């Protein structure tokens, strides 16, 4: 019962001990309590109960009972870090037992070999055990042994063999009532899905396993470790770090398994390194190394040492000693047959390159590059990164570009398996180094066209295809409805000055649930076969200009496209530009309120400084036609209309030249339906809406109770023009929950992603609707970024808080131009010019941006 209904088994065992049982029965009861404490409680209590169980078995003169207890005790001792004592217990158990009992002890030793990282020994023991267990018709233990063998195969990179064993085990579990083992089987299938590169399936299966464990009331430390692995691969390293640290806290509170603590520390170290926190990574990895060494877990120790060296390198350290350490770790990982071995060789090669040890670097990188030919996507990415660095070290620019192209193609294929736009965006971080290497070689040896092509290769890739919509998922839909209701109640309580901790907790729970459901979605769209064509871009620009801003080695490179050619100009330091943009944003926030007129010259001066940094000499060569600015994700907070050379132009912004081309070639929605929405609580009451409605004949106007999320989404789907006057909230902590407030609560980014086709043009008249989060290599998450792949060709939105009265004037002037047939960029240029010259109106005009090409 202890794995079918753990808490019931514990109660039954304690009940047995209260009845003064004979030694044989008491031995079983103490063993059950020992198993429960070993896996979900205090290791000290576990060892105490198991030693008593063994003594009672000896008193009962039952060699088979003693053998079985010794197997359980061996596992507990290994988990407690007493490896030598644990292995001795197994030896004694195998000597004392026979047949079926001995096979169970062999299975437990095989499990402990796996925990210790001795995979070949684990396979030998589990194979011997499976033969006997099958002959004995022991379904439960055969299924356990098959699951273990599959897990060992995964550790050795043999995914196909693991799949076969997992499938066989699952068929056996379906015939049993072993609920904990069934949950473990689901968890194991999640691990197999991850190892084969299917991140959405892995997340779905791990979540299902967690639900099963929750029903049993048991902690899930192994599941936590595996989820951390998947979260890191999905680009969610900060979440993985938080999950690992939380699990360590729980484990310490229980006095639980020291082996699991070491593994959690290793997961936390990896996550911290990927999250850009090398100090935390170093601390966690160093402690993990010490624990693994004390537990005699050399396989695990080598993995922890790899992360420790990576973290030290990330802090800027580079020395011959580190090269030697990395080579030693890589050799140990290779001797174990560990899939992480190429990462060790790549690390050694990187450090050697930093030290200009070209011959050594080439040797190490050549070994790492072998992994590019097979295995899961991220392993092949490691190989192509090594190949690119190797080519760079040997002076082969063509070799660098070919390796970068092949590596990014691998990541493209992987990315399209991800249905959630958030996962696709974050996954691009894996290709950042390859994209940067290709850009650097293009800057040094190629022309501006080549640099433009490589700048486009890994920019705003998520916008190349709409997110995969879930099938009719009643759980997700009900979750969105419940979230909206709870968020609305919490907002109402805050406005009344009432405390809302309970509502906020429920809101956070619903956010987690919604996010989990969306992350489970598997991608359906194939890779973007429509590669960027510079010639097509230049043709479509006509007399206009497109300014693409690339960042290489911290410096701005300006690529000016137009008049049939691409020219390159040097800009300033991107860090300076980011600081200046932050000052501008702060100034715009101040200017949104009366009495801040003195800040206007300061903001304008910042605009001039931004132009020097971001456009350089290109500012004088923009011609007289429209201008499209394509900034990197980290500079999307710049109010481009503030720059002097752009202030009086027809100006639009796009996340990439490719997305501008797609918007330019998007056909308007047939039928010309127009939708105007007024949300609640606006200072002006959305005063522009009635007047705007008069310009368009008989538009659909949704206000008051009609402005409910479901109705608004229904009307927006396929509209030609939408104007939404509603409070906007940008969530930097979770961009996909950025929202517009409707009558029944927030309309979030996840809602918009359910549209079959978003409106051809959208005007968002409230604050912060254009704010976006920079994630991955050069990706954006937020409301505008969600709309562009769904059929929207043009958006007008604000990247800063704005003056409510000034917004009304700007919107009326904007719609005057739109209704006269102008594009959004043309209408916005004219609307700015029509505003009064006072500070609030000028700042409001600068805060709004036209995105896209409609």
Q: Can you put this structure into words, describing what you see?
A:
- It is a single chain.
- Helix content is 61%, strand content 9%.
- The chain is α/β, with parallel strands linked by helices and 854 residues long.
- The strands form four sheets. The protein has a six-stranded mixed β-sheet, with helices on both faces.
- Strand 1 (545-552) and strand 2 (555-562) form a beta hairpin.
- Helix 5 (83-96) runs antiparallel to helix 6 (99-116), helix 6 runs parallel beside helix 8 (139-155) and helix 35 crosses helix 37 (839-847).
- It starts with 5 loop residues before the first helix and ends with a strand.
- Pfam families: CHAT (PF12770).
- Residues 605-852 form the CHAT domain.
- This is CHAT domain-containing protein.
Short description:
It comes from Streptomyces galilaeus. It holds the Pfam family CHAT. The chain is of the alpha/beta class and 854 residues long.
Topology:
Layout: H1 6-17, H2 23-40, H3 43-59, H4 63-79, H5 83-96, H6 99-116, H7 119-135, H8 139-155, H9 159-173, H10 179-195, H11 199-216, H12 221-233, H13 237-254, H14 258-274, H15 278-294, H16 298-314, H17 320-336, H18 341-354, H19 358-369, H20 377-393, H21 397-415, H22 421-427, H23 432-445, H24 448-457, H25 474-495, H26 501-519, H27 534-541, E1 545-552, E2 555-562, E3 565-573, H28 574-591, H29 600-614, E4 627-630, E5 651-653, H30 657-664, E6 674-678, H31 688-695, E7 700-702, H32 709-716, E8 721-725, E9 728-729, E10 739-742, E11 745-748, H33 749-752, E12 761-764, E13 773-775, E14 779-781, H34 783-787, E15 794-798, H35 804-819, H36 824-834, H37 839-847, E16 848-852
Parallel strand pairs: 1-4, 4-5, 6-7, 6-8, 8-12, 12-15
Antiparallel strand pairs: 1-2, 2-3, 9-10, 10-11, 13-14, 15-16
Helix pairs in contact: 1-2, 2-3, 2-4, 3-4, 4-5, 4-6, 5-6, 6-7, 6-8, 7-8, 8-9, 8-10, 9-10, 10-11, 11-12, 12-13, 12-14, 13-14, 14-15, 14-16, 15-16, 16-17, 16-18, 17-18, 18-19, 18-20, 19-20, 20-21, 21-23, 23-24, 25-26, 28-29, 31-35, 35-36, 35-37
């Amino acid at each position: 019962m202890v794995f079918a209904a753990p808490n019931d088994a514990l109660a039954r065992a304690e009940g047995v001990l209260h009845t003064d049982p004979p030694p044989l029965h008491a031995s079983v009861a103490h063993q059950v309590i020992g198993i429960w404490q070993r896996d979900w409680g205090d290791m000290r209590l576990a060892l105490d109960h198991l030693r008593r169980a063994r003594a009672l078995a000896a008193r009962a003169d039952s060699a088979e009972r003693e053998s079985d207890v010794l197997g359980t005790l061996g596992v507990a001792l290994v988990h407690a870090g007493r490896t030598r004592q644990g292995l001795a217990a197994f030896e004694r158990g195998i000597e004392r037992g026979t047949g079926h009992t001995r096979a169970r002890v062999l299975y437990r030793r095989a499990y402990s070999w796996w925990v210790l990282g001795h995979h070949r020994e684990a396979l030998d023991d589990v194979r011997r055990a499976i033969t006997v267990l099958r002959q004995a018709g022991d379904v439960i233990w055969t299924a356990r042994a098959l699951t273990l063998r599959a897990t060992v195969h995964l550790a050795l990179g043999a995914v196909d063999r693991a799949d076969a064993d997992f499938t066989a085990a699952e068929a056996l579990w379906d015939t049993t009532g072993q609920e904990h083992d069934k949950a473990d089987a689901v968890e194991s299938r999640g691990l197999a899905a991850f190892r084969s590169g299917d991140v959405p399936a892995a997340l779905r299966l791990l979540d299902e396993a967690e639900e099963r464990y929750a029903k049993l009331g048991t902690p899930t430390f192994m599941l936590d470790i595996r989820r951390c692995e998947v979260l890191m691969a999905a680009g969610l390293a900060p979440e993985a770090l938080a999950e690992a640290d939380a699990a360590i806290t729980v484990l310490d509170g229980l006095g639980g398994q020291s082996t699991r603590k070491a593994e959690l520390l290793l997961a936390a170290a990896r996550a911290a390194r990927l999250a850009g926190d090398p100090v935390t990574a170093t601390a966690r990895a160093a402690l993990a190394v010490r624990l693994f060494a004390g537990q005699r877990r050399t396989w695990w120790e080598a993995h922890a040492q790899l992360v420790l060296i990576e973290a030290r390198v990330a802090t800027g350290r580079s020395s011959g000693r580190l090269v030697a350490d990395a080579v030693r770790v890589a050799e140990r990982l290779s001797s174990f047959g560990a899939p992480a071995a190429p990462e060790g060789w790549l690390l050694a090669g990187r450090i050697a390159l930093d030290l200009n040890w070209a011959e050594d670097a080439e040797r190490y990188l050549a070994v790492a590059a072998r992994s590019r030919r097979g295995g899961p996507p991220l392993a092949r990415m490691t190989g192509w990164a090594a190949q690119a660095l190797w080519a760079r070290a040997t002076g082969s620019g063509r070799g660098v570009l070919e390796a970068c192209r092949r590596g990014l193609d691998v990541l493209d294929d992987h990315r399209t398996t991800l249905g959630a736009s958030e996962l696709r965006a974050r996954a691009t971080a894996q290709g950042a180094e390859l994209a940067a290497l290709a850009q650097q070689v293009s800057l040094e040896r190629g022309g501006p066209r080549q640099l433009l092509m490589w700048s486009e290769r890994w920019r705003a890739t998520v916008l190349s295809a709409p997110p995969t919509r879930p099938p009719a998922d009643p759980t997700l839909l009900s979750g969105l409805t419940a979230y909206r209701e709870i968020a609305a109640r919490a907002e109402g309580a805050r406005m009344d000055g009432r405390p809302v901790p309970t509502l906020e907790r429920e809101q956070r729970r619903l956010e987690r649930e919604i996010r989990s459901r969306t992350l489970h979605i598997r991608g359906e769209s194939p890779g973007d076969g429509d590669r960027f064509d510079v010639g097509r871009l230049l043709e479509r620009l006509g007399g206009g200009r497109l300014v693409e801003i690339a960042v290489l080695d911290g410096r701005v490179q300006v690529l000016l496209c137009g008049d049939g050619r691409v020219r390159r100009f040097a800009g300033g330091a991107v860090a300076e530009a980011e600081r200046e943009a932050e000052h501008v944003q702060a100034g715009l926030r101040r200017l949104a309120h009366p009495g801040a007129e003195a800040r206007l010259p300061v903001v304008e001066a910042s605009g001039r400084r931004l132009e020097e940094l971001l456009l350089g000499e290109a500012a004088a060569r923009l011609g007289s036609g429209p201008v499209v600015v394509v900034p990197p994700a980290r500079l999307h907070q710049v109010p481009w209309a503030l720059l002097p050379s752009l202030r009086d132009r027809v100006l639009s912004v796009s996340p990439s030249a490719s997305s501008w081309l797609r918007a330019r070639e998007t056909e308007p929605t047939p039928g010309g339906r127009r939708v105007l929405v007024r949300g609640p609580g606006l200072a002006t009451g959305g005063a522009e809406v009635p007047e705007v409605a008069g310009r368009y004949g008989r538009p659909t106007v949704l206000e008051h109770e009609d402005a409910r999320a479901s109705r608004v989404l229904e009307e927006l789907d396929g509209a030609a023009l939408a104007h939404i006057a509603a409070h906007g909230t940008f969530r930097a902590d979770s961009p996909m929950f950025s929202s517009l407030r409707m009558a029944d609560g927030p309309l979030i980014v996840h809602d918009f992603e359910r549209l079959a086709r978003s409106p051809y043009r959208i005007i968002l008249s409230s604050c912060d609707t254009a704010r976006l989060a920079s994630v991955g290599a050069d990706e954006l998450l937020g409301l505008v970024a969600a709309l562009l792949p769904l059929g929207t060709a043009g958006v007008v939105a604000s990247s800063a808080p704005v003056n409510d009265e000034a917004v009304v004037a700007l919107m009326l002037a904007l719609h005057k131009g739109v209704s006269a047939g102008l594009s959004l960029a043309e209408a916005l240029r004219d609307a700015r010019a029509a505003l009064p010259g006072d500070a609030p109106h000028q700042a409001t005009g600068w805060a709004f941006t036209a995105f896209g090409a409609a």
